[in-house]
Specification:
This protein is 53% helix and 9% strand. The protein is α/β, with parallel strands linked by helices and 662 residues long.
Length: 662
């Protein structure tokens, strides 16, 4: 392999590289940036350091310089070197450059199964599925046991819902290279999709026997425990994955699920968010200057970043907000990290001035586009949830950056200036749980407009049916404390039943049955409902008398939809935002009697209202009027706009507010 001479005409040994490492270790990022840029311009990229150069280039904002060095090296490279360079480009999230280099390698070595396999894998990663399938087929034609090709073909079949084909392809990959733990992890995912959970556990655990530091294996095991509603063990493995390879794919599920733990204190949860949220902050963005004109009174360019601009709960709240924002004050950008499109995404496109799909585009490229557009205020709608782009915010492409709506907690990032919230969700004293400054809105955090109209029915118990309690929150939020409280409620009303939503697997149902059996509640009193489409989901509320909230992670969208369908919710109010959302929604609707501050009061409230079916029926008839009175969409949009302007003016004054924006 001629990579060293191809990339580094001037030999660079470890001692020549040590100063950059030392500067990075000391936090002298400005000096490290100069040193690395100099090395890149001199083409000092020895092959052993390609991965390190990728990491440093991303941290120091030098990805374009790094890619230019790769391009120069590629002009002098053979097929093997091109493959190594292509891998580095893909690792740097420069997908277009990576695919181009993979194409070059395949052209230089047309009979190389490896070259075609890696090109197919790169194309699959970029979403070019048809071309990926062609390249993978060519690789398998050249070598039927080529493991990279078989693994990627398995992933392609998984995406096309050919689970049997995925299991077959990934099994071939494992047989061809049994010492590779990543192939075993991929086969485990295929087994999981097929419902073969025991096989998935065994093959994934065998990957850890080969590589005890394999973060992908820890993530897969965490997901398996999550599926069967074993949150404590899921969190243990999510944490191991994040500690071994801190990145979006590992940090996001760990922090998100940590919000539901009743075994961690509020302080512990915040500490983990601060520890891992900082991974997304780029050192190169510290003290970054922006060219935005600091005029406090001009029309602002406001960007919303989300992967949920389709038929998703975030879209349900964003629709009335986007409709109500004053276009004389704001020019709106929707920056969409997804390829899913439906009638909701089509509607949202008509409510914004610019629609930019950033899925598959590197953080650096997205940040550069935002800067070129001159976005003044950039708003994250995801936090630590799927399809987040916190890495973009870490590069600080906009002078004002804020988190809003999609995540009930802190990002933990230094580069996120504000958390847009309300005094109800985050009362005075909760500042200690945020790295951001709290920008508090009056009233509720967001407007709400249902995306389906379903008539409200009468409480089923009025017709003589057994009283039906229900919780439609996802089952991973059902902690041991919640099971204990619900068991006490069911014991106090022996004829009542309990419906649990989003229970999609037999193992999850059996896990819940065992938990309630241990608390003295028979399985015959439980009813499990799978995840439903929105219309079916809303119609299902006609079968419910009274909803029970989870804690410490309370419902938000589920609580709002429950009230919209006339079903009150009993909630236990906590301290953090995730534990207060249900209480805030209920109080805004004038339903304080359903809010409890202790587990004993929570149980008492549920039994109290279960004994008053006539009053529940009256609430059912008047609930939508209560919600309409408490939610003036135009006023909420105006208040949100005022908060944006206040944050902008604080930046214009070069003295960002340290306190609250009221």
């Amino acid at each position: 392999m001629k990579l060293r001479t191809a990339i580094a005409p001037v030999e660079a040994d470890a001692s020549a590289r040590a100063p950059i490492a030392a500067l990075m270790e000391a936090g002298a990022f400005a000096e490290a940036r100069v040193a690395l840029a100099t090395a890149l311009l001199r083409d000092e990229l020895p092959p052993a350091d390609l991965a390190t150069c990728v990491t440093w280039s991303r941290q120091l904002g030098l990805v374009p310089v790094f890619l230019a060095a790769l391009g120069r090296a590629a002009e002098r490279s053979d097929a093997d070197a091109s493959l190594a360079l292509a891998g580095a480009a893909m690792e740097a999230e420069a997908y277009a450059e990576g695919v181009q280099l993979h194409r070059k390698a395949a052209a230089l070595a047309p009979d190389s199964a490896l070259a075609h396999a890696q090109l197919g894998a790169a194309l699959f990663r970029c979403g070019a599925l048809e071309e990926a399938e062609t390249e993978l087929a060519r690789a398998i034609e050249l070598d039927p046991r080529q493991p990279i090709a078989q693994r990627s073909l398995g992933s392609l079949k998984m995406q096309n819902r050919d689970i049997d084909g995925a299991v077959e392809a990934m099994s071939i990959a494992v047989a061809a290279d049994p010492a590779n733990p990543d192939y075993r992890v991929s086969l485990g995912w295929a087994f999981q999709a097929k419902g073969m959970l025991e096989e998935a556990f065994l093959i994934t655990q065998s990957a850890l026997e080969i590589d005890p530091a394999n973060a992908a294996a820890y993530s897969a095991l965490a997901d398996l425990f999550f599926m069967v509603r074993d949150l404590p063990r899921a969190l243990r493995y999510f944490k191991l994955a994040a500690d071994h390879r801190p990145c979006a794919a590992t940090i996001t599920p760990y922090l998100f699920n940590l919000l539901a733990s009743d075994a961690h204190s509020d302080e512990d949860i915040f500490a983990e968010h601060r520890r891992l949220g900082g991974v997304f902050d780029s050192p190169a963005a510290r003290n970054k200057t922006h060219r935005n004109v600091p005029d406090p009174d001009r029309r602002l360019k406001v960007g919303f970043v989300s992967g949920d601009f389709y038929n998703h709960s975030v879209a349900h709240f964003m629709k009335p907000l986007l409709q109500g924002l004053d276009r004389g004050r704001f020019e709106i950008y929707a920056i969409y990290n997804n390829t899913a499109e439906d009638s909701v995404s089509a509607l949202l496109q008509t409510l914004v001035d610019h629609w930019y799909v950033c899925h598959g585009v590197s953080d650096q490229a997205v940040a550069e586009w935002i800067e070129r557009e001159g976005v003044d205020v950039l708003i994250d709608l995801s936090g630590h949830t799927n399809l987040q782009r916190l890495g973009v915010f870490g590069l600080r492409p906009a002078p004002v950056q804020a988190s809003y709506l999609g995540y009930p907690g802190t990002t933990g990032m230094a580069s996120m200036d504000y958390k847009i919230t309300s005094a109800n969700v985050d009362p005075p004293g909760t500042e200690r749980f945020y790295t951001e400054t709290l920008a508090r809105l009056p009233g509720l955090v967001a407007p709400f407009q249902p995306l389906a109209e379903i008539e409200v029915g009468d409480p089923p118990s009025l017709s003589g049916a057994p009283f039906m309690f229900a919780c439609m929150n996802p089952p991973w939020r059902i902690t041991p404390s919640v099971v204990r409280a619900w068991a006490r409620i069911m014991a106090g009303l022996p004829d009542a039943r309990l419906m649990l939503g989003s229970v999609n697997t037999t193992l999850a149902a059996n896990n819940l049955i065992a938990a309630f059996a241990a608390a003295g509640i028979d399985a015959e009193r439980l009813e499990f409902v799978p995840r439903l489409q929105l219309r079916e989901y809303l119609e299902n509320y006609r079968r419910i008398d009274l909803a029970l909230d989870t804690f410490p992670y309370a419902g938000g969208t589920t609580t709002t939809y429950s009230l919209w369908m006339g079903v009150p919710v009993v909630t236990l109010e906590g301290v953090r935002a995730a534990a207060r959302s249900g209480a805030c929604i209920l109080r805004e609707a004038g339903l304080d009697e359903f809010v409890a501050q202790s587990e004993d009061l929570y149980v008492a409230r549920a039994l109290h209202w279960a004994s008053r079916p006539a009053e529940l029926a009256e609430l059912r008839r008047t609930m939508r009027d209560r919600l309409r009175v408490s939610r003036d969409h135009a006023e909420q949009a105006s208040q949100f706009g005022d908060a944006l302007v206040a944050m902008w003016r604080a930046w214009c004054a070069r003295a960002p507010a340290k306190g609250e924006i009221q």
